[in-house]
Design brief:
The chain is of the alpha/beta class and 294 residues long. It has two domains: 227 residues, 3-Layer(aba) Sandwich (Rossmann fold), CATH 3.40.50.150; 42 residues. Helix content is 51%, strand content 15%. It has a seven-stranded mixed sheet with strand order 3-2-1-4-5-7-6, sandwiched between helices. Helix 2 packs across helix 3, helix 2 packs across helix 10 and helix 7 packs antiparallel against helix 8. It starts with 32 loop residues before the first helix and ends with a helix.
Length: 294
Amino acid sequence: MKLPRKPWIPGVPDLSVRRPEVPERMDSPDCDLAALHRTYAGFRAVNTVVAGWQLTYRTQVRPALAQAAGRSRASAAPVTLLDIGAGGGDVTRALLHRARRDGFSARITAVDPDARAYAWASGRRPVEGLEVLQATSGDLVREGRRFDVVLSNHLLHHLDPGQLDAVLADSEVLASVRAIHSDIRRAPAAYALFSAGTLPFFPGSYIRHDGLASIRRSYTPEELAAAVRPGWRVQAQVPWRTLAVWDAEGWDAGAGEAGIRDEEDREDEDREAAVRDQGDRDAGVRDEGDRDAH
């Protein structure tokens, strides 16, 4: 699908057509290992700024975790997440931290078939509840694994049509509540800003070259909507993200949101009670001081 022609931006190639043939250097099996490691190390900063998981977590992941937590409350089982094509694992770790910060007892599994990504991710500091595997989504399906939430970051534009269909089909089997695949949305402004923003940074890595290549390879929401399996919905997320989302039959998004609101209401009530208690204590101190003064 062609994007509408827009005013030319200096340094930005024609993005009216998706270019899946544009190579990314880090995908090459003989790429420089030191440059690859610097790339993995830089992903934490890059993904924090551009990947949009703060918003995706609030709007897509957290409601699904709330629904899963409600189902498993009787057994006290933790909620479970799967990150497909996790690379260096920075997004995996960030999501585990966010889930636990929100009070979920959570476990997350990161999988990537690339031995180099597995070596990097598994070699970092261990975190309780984090599992790192060298595997594909198909491997986990064959093992009979199941997770409450399945997700990926910047994976879909790497896949050919057959691989895309297979990952989405695997996600439907693996996810008991929701699957969310987040990727870049191809846009001239995104290209220009990433090009300018990364120019002074990440020397000796593949971040700038491969990031720009990824934008050229990525889908628009309309293109991805035409490529996904039935039952998936595709939506744009500001500023330049495209999400493919699948919900398991019978799960109630409203119930997940309601659970979050109830928890937030309880936290607000606790904070208000703490403020009132502190006010009462302060008033008691003042009264005692007034009596002493007399």
